[in-house]
Amino acid sequence: MLLKNALTFCHLLAMAVAVGKMLDFDFRFLRSVHMRPSPQLLQDLGGTKTTMTLALIALWFSGAALVYLGYAQNPEYLMNEKLWAKISTVIVLSVNGLLMHRFAFPILKQGGIFLDLPQARMLALTLFAAISSVSWLYASFLGIARSWNNTAPISYTMGIYATLVLGAGAAAMLGMSLLRQQHVKRAALPSFADTEINKAGCPN
Hints:
The protein has helices at about 1-30, 40-75, 80-110, 120-145, 155-190, 190-200. By secondary structure, it is mostly helical.
C-alpha cells in the first residue's frame, strides 16, 4: 500500500510540475510572439524543455509501475477502458513531444520573431503547442476522473480528446493567423519618426 501511494504521489507530482511549467511558459511566450524573444525567455525555453522531458519520463515509469501493481492485485484492472484512453493520450503526447524536439525547438532557439516565420511553419508550430497543451491537460483530467473507471468506453473518452485537439488546434491556428495579419499590417505602417523625417525633408 505504501509503495502504491508513493508511486501515485510521484505520478501526480510529475503531472503537476509539467502542466504548471507548460502553462507558465506558454502564457509568457504568447505575450512576445510579435517581438524577438529575450535571452531570458530563450533560456527558459531550454529549462521548460528539460523539465517537461524529465516529467514525462517520470510519468511513464510511475504509470507503468502503477499498472503492474494494479494487474498484480486484480488482472481485470486492465479491462478498465479509461486506463487505455489515458495511455493512448500519453502516447500521443510523447510522439508530439519528440516532434517538437526535432522540429519546433530548434526553430524557436534561433531567436527570430515568431509571427515573421513563414505562415505554414508558424501554424505547424502552433499546432504542436496546441496538441501538447490539450494532451497534458486531458491526461491530467483522466487521472482524476474516477467516475469513468470501468464505465466510460474508450470511444467516448477518446472522442472527447479528439474533439478537444481539433477544436483547440483550429482555434489556436486561427488566432495566430489573425495576430500575424495585425503584425504584418503594423510593420507596413511608417513609424512616427520616419513620418516626421519625411515631413522635415519636404518643402512647403
